[in-house]
Write a structure and sequence with these properties.
Shape: globular
Largest sheet: 4 strands, mixed
Low-confidence stretches: 18-25, 27-34
Number of domains: 2
Pfam families: Cyt-b5
Number of strands: 4
CATH class of the largest domain: Alpha Beta
Structural class: alpha+beta
Organism: Candida tenuis (strain ATCC 10573 / BCRC 21748 / CBS 615 / JCM 9827 / NBRC 10315 / NRRL Y-1498 / VKM Y-70) (Yeast)
CATH superfamily of the largest domain: Cytochrome b5-like heme/steroid binding domain
GO molecular function: heme binding; metal ion binding
Mean pLDDT: 84
Bound molecules: protoporphyrin IX containing FE
Order of helices and strands: HHEHEEHHHE
Distance between the termini: 72 Å
Domain Cytochrome b5 heme-binding: 42-143
Keywords: Endoplasmic reticulum, Heme, Iron, Metal-binding, Signal
Strand content: 5-15%
CATH topology of the largest domain: Flavocytochrome B2, Chain A, domain 1
Number of helices: 6
Radius of gyration: 23 Å
Helix content: 40-55%
Length: 148
């Protein structure tokens, strides 16, 4: 009799654990913990607020795709060495290994086609792209203002 009670108690104990595990992986709970969903399609103007100061999130476009680089805030956040890239299309700067402001396409101009890049610059850009693919999440794409 006592053995049956013990077995039942042990089973109940494990069932309780099982249910609390299920609760903790409830997708609704997980979604609540994640940051709010942001748009998947950006234009240079909608992207630029994600620069770590107007919005705490930091997004950066590379070859038409938008990466969430918020984790790299020490690089891209305000005062960071690559803060110019935050909220912008960084492709040309990455291709030319320069974070100079003049390499960023002004917000009111069409998207940079990158057509004039040399093979070496393309290679440099591609290897940066690979670096970002391995490190950060892609959260959207970059589009021209008139091409939504
Ligand atoms: C003075 C020369 C430079 C030094 C000493 C330097 C140093 C560094 C260091 C130490 C890292 C961190 C590497 C890591 O922990 O993964 C880094 C990352 C990086 N650097 Fe530089 N850098 C220099 C120039 C540049 C230039 C000119 C660019 C322009 C494209 C650049 C763009 C980047 C980017 C995009 C990252 C990656 C950050 C990330 O993983 O999100 N750096 N740099």
């Amino acid at each position: 009799m006592i053995t049956t009670v013990i077995i039942v108690l042990v089973i109940l104990y494990f069932l309780k654990d099982l249910f609390s595990d299920i609760r903790s992986v409830n997708p609704l709970d997980a979604a609540k913990q994640e940051s709010p969903v942001v748009e998947g399609k950006f234009t240079p103007k909608t992207l630029c607020k994600y620069n770590g100061s107007d919005d705490p999130k930091i997004f950066m476009a590379v070859k038409g795709r938008v990466f969430d680089v918020s984790q790299g805030a020490t690089f891209y956040g305000p005062g960071g060495p690559y803060e110019n890239f935050a909220g912008r299309d960084a492709s040309r700067g990455l291709a030319k290994n320069s974070f100079e402001l003049e390499l960023l396409t002004p917000l009111d101009q069409p998207l940079d086609t990158l057509e004039d890049l040399t093979p070496e610059e393309r290679e440099s850009l591609d290897s940066w792209e690979e670096h970002f693919e391995n490190k950060y999440k892609i959260i959207g794409t970059l589009h021209g203002e008139n091409e939504k």
